[in-house]
Amino acid sequence: MFEAVEELIGEHADLEKRLADPAVHADQAEARRLGKRYAELTPVVSTFRSWRQTGDDIGTARELAAEDPEFAAEVKDLERLREQLTDRLRLLLVPRDPSDDKDVILEVKAGEGGEESALFAGDLLRMYLRYAERLGWKTEIIDANASDLGGYKDVQVAVKTRGSIEPGQGVWARLKYEGGVHRVQRVPATESAGRIHTSAAGVLVTPEADEVEVEINAGDLRVDVYRSSGPGGQSVNTTDSAVRITHLPTGVVVSCQNEKSQLQNKEQAMRILRSRLLAAAQEEAEREASDARRSQVRTVDRSERIRTYNFPENRISDHRVGFKSYNLDQVLDGELDAVIQACVDADSAAKLAAAQ
């Protein structure tokens, strides 16, 4: 472990010198890349320096304790601190997900439960929008298919960070655990007898791909245009501005009708398509390497639920990590940190165990 740290310390020092060179900043893309790597390595370097200093302090405290027993308690405190720093250092050295700093496209789809499921999809969308607002992220509704009662049959939203971010605090780093089937238990607005119903909605989270990351051959696309429609089938546009794109080699289909022009809808649909193809390519690479992410459910078609939202008990349960709390109302208002952190901690522990 410590040989790896010494190499990273050398890389960190080299990056510091390069970033101090004004010529490097003439290429903004290269400067951002170097700055990102420097930010990733800084916690490793600072933790290692603290770990090493604590080792020296323990040696000094032991010498003093041999002459004065009152220093014995200080030795124990320093030993506990060093154990904590050792654990933190091991965790920092676990390979990071290369997509952690990426922005994402988050999709919510109504599932079993009809109109109630669409209303729940709307609740989930609001939860994610409020969470993003709390963290200072920027959100953009790319496409939405509203239901008659104000929910969503399906909706896609782009979530982006603003400015620089700390390692592990990017949008994908936090929201990648949200993918999967979300189940709700409550008395629907459409239920007159007061009975509790169970329905579900699916969430799909994919890192947003740059054009250079995913090469799409125009000949592999079938583009269909049609007239946009809203709830109840009422016409929204009088022209064929909605766009549906089919990627023929993979069968992936995306559509967009939110924008007023066909060109704008096509551009938004291509954003979604690039992200889905990037996610599919990453998934395939992971399968080949036998290192698929355990915490991210890639499709919304799976019957396996990841989380239950129980309204009568004000309870939220994440079934993957055993998390449970009774503040569902606050979670739905965007206070998702504790839920997500439980997934982050479980994922980190699993990676750490695998690395040992």
UniProtKB/TrEMBL annotation:
Prokaryotic-type class I peptide chain release factors domain boundaries: 227-243
Compartments where located: Cytoplasm
Free-text description of this protein's post-translational modifications in UniProt: Methylated by PrmC. Methylation increases the termination efficiency of RF1.
NCBIfam families from the UniProt entry: prfA, PRK00591.1
Coiled coil: 256-283
Keywords: Coiled coil, Cytoplasm, Methylation, Protein biosynthesis
Gene Ontology CC entries for this record: cytoplasm
Gene name, Swiss-Prot/TrEMBL: prfA
Pfam families found in the cross-reference section: PCRF, RF-1
Protein name, per record: Peptide chain release factor 1
InterPro entries: PCRF (IPR005139), Pep_chain_release_fac_I (IPR000352), Pep_chain_release_fac_I_sf (IPR045853), Prokaryotic/Mito_RF (IPR050057), RF-1 (IPR004373)
UniProt cross-references to HAMAP family, sorted A to Z: Rel_fac_1
